[in-house]
Every structure is written in C-alpha cells, then in structure tokens.
Specification:
The complex is a heterodimer. Chain A is of the alpha/beta class. Helices cover 40% and strands 18% of the residues of chain A. Chain A is built from five helices and eight strands. In chain A, strands 1-2-3-5 form a four-stranded parallel beta sheet. Chain A has a two-stranded parallel ribbon with strand order 4-6. A two-stranded antiparallel sheet of chain A has the order 7-8. By secondary structure, chain B is mostly helical. Chain B is built from seven helices and five strands. In chain B, the strands form two sheets. In chain B, strands 1-2-5 form a three-stranded parallel beta sheet. A two-stranded parallel sheet of chain B has the order 3-4. The chains are: A alpha/beta, B mainly alpha. Chains A and B meet through strand 1, helix 1 and helix 5 of A and helix 3, strand 5 and helix 7 of B. Strand 1 of chain A pairs parallel with strand 5 of chain B, so a sheet runs across the interface.
C-alpha cells in the first residue's frame, strides 16, 4: 500500500508540505485545483518539483472546464519537465471548484473530451479538438 | 469512464471495502473487453484520517476539527445531487437527514466556500460520531491499520489523506508516525 497526502495549493506553503511528506515516507503529494479558494495548482506543483526528488506529484484533481484541455495538458507537461516521470494528471468534473462559482460540474461529454485531448497531446499524438461549437 | 479511459482511478470516500468494490465494479464495466487484465492500474482513494489519542473518543473536539471539514465536502456533494432531484449515493444517504438538508437549504449558496477548511456555523451538530466512524478513517492506530489492510485486500493501492488546510503539517507527521511506520 502506498500513502499520499492531498492539500490546498498554496503558493507559499504547499511545496513545504510536499517536502515534509517526502521526508515522512509518503509516496505521493496531491495538489487541490480549486481556483476560488487556492493558489494556481501548477505554480504550486512547479515549486514542489524544484524542492523534492522522489515523491510523486499529482493534481487531485484538475478540474475539467476551468481551463481548456490543451492548457491543462501543457501545464502538467511543464511540471513534468522539472519532475520527469513523477508527475500525475488526475482529472475530475469538479465539485468545489464549480460550486463556489454557483455552477454545476461539467457534463460527462465535456469530461470525456478533456480526457481524450489531454491523453493524446501528452502522448504527442494529433487530436481533434472542439471548442465553442467549432472543430479544429 | 475511469475504467475506459484512465490509467488509474482516483475516487473519494471509498473507505470501506464494500464501497471500494462497488466503485471498482463500475470502473471495470468501462474497460474495453479486448484490453484484458491490466498490468498496473492504480486505485487511489482520497479520504480523511485521525488517530485517536489515549482516552480520546469520536466526539472529541480535536477529532471533529481534523475530520469534519473533509466529511462535509462529501455530504455537500450528496446534497447537491439531491437538489438536482436525484437520489444521493447510497454511501451518503443515511447521513443526509431531512433536518440536515433543511439546514443546508438555508445556506446552500455559501456551503462550498468553507470546503476542507472548517464547518459551517452549527454544522458540527450533524457530524456525529456515527458519521465520523462511517466517513473517515478515525480510530486507534490498530483500528485504522486494520481498516486499511481490508481496503488493500479489496484492491486499494494508495490511501490519500486529505486533512483540513490548517492542519496539513500536523496530519502528515501524525499519520506517518502512527500509521505508515507501523503498516
């Protein structure tokens, strides 16, 4: 069994939490993505990537729709440049991130498209993208 | 969808073997039949844990502070499902009492802003020891480890603790010393 810890993405604190978790034997540090209550998740993961060496760093979870999928893919790929092979993109439809804006989570068709776009771009594959009623 | 498209599964609140098994069965339905048995498919659950100190009980203020805010996130999720006219997930249903729903109705536009930080004023009344027992990994060291072993046997590969944001440091140290070191 592996053990992880999930916490607020806080630009001044969360990298320190990741360092502590690594020192204390946790295998994973998971960063919350919730734009109305926390710092930017990828900025926080970038700092953690710079200050840790073994712990896996993931989003728990990145919220579909609050960023377009190609931006999500490029953000996690950027962090992975600093922590190659120990970066995880967890994706979800959202609860707190959308509810704090008075909105429901994204629909499953949007979520499916987000996963598809992220997976293919992160593999270096071409992907058919649609946004605002248009297709690429 | 996680079974069909994911390289693994992240779930919340699947902290009993039955709940985890039900989640895994759903994920398995999405798996393409041609894919066969996956070599590696991480199964991660995000929950909250608190190791009781000697003499401490589930109704201790410290326990409520440590696990209450995260439990509320799940209950608020179930409440929103009900507001949409759907049935709450079975796991949450017993605890989403009519009185608690009425309480949430009065403040539905602000309940989510305290997620993972603290409870709404008066909400502690609804986070009873029964709720804490069912919806968190709270107990003595031995009890928590026993529950984790049962989850591992049911297919869990990673337990993620999600402490309140003001208690992350203390929770990391406590869980590492009390659970990881003895697992």
């Amino acid at each position: 069994m592996n053990f992880g810890v999930s916490f607020q993405s806080h630009i001044q604190n969360s990298w320190k939490h990741a360092v502590l978790a690594e020192q204390m034997g946790f295998s994973n540090a998971w960063f919350v993505d919730t734009q109305m209550l926390a710092s930017d998740v990828y900025a926080c993961m970038t700092l953690a990537a710079e200050h840790t060496s073994t712990i896996q760093l993931g989003t728990a979870v990145a919220i579909a729709g609050t960023r377009i999928a190609p931006v999500t893919a490029h953000s996690i790929a950027t962090v992975n440049q600093l922590a190659p092979g120990r970066t995880i993109l967890g994706l979800g439809t959202g609860h707190t991130a959308w509810r704090t804006m008075g909105m429901p989570p994204v629909r499953l068709d949007t979520f499916r498209h987000t996963i598809d776009v992220c997976r293919k771009l992160l593999r270096g594959e071409a992907v058919e993208y649609h946004e605002r009623g248009r297709r690429s | 969808m996680a079974g069909e498209l994911g390289d693994g599964l992240i779930t919340v609140s699947s902290i009993t073997p039955d709940a985890l098994t039900a989640t895994l069965e759903k994920a398995a339905k999405g798996r393409p039949q041609s894919s066969g048995q996956r070599k590696e498919y991480p199964v991660v659950t995000v929950g909250v844990a608190c190791v009781l100190r000697p003499g401490e009980t589930l109704d201790s203020p410290r326990v409520l502070t440590r696990v209450g805010p995260r439990i509320a996130v799940g209950l608020h999720y179930a409440y929103e499902v009900v507001r949409q006219g759907k049935r709450a997930p079975a796991y949450f249903e017993p605890f989403l009492t009519p009185r608690y729903r009425a309480y949430l109705d009065e403040r539905w536009d602000e309940i989510h802003v305290t997620h993972s930080r603290f409870l709404q004023p008066g909400e502690e009344e609804f986070i009873t020891p029964e709720v804490i027992r069912a919806m968190s990994m709270t107990g003595t060291r031995e009890e928590v480890i026993t529950r984790l072993k049962a989850l591992e046997a049911a297919g869990l590969t990673q337990m993620v603790i999600s402490p309140p944001w003001d208690y992350v440091k203390e929770s990391i140290v406590e869980f590492a010393r009390e659970i990881i070191a003895h697992y």
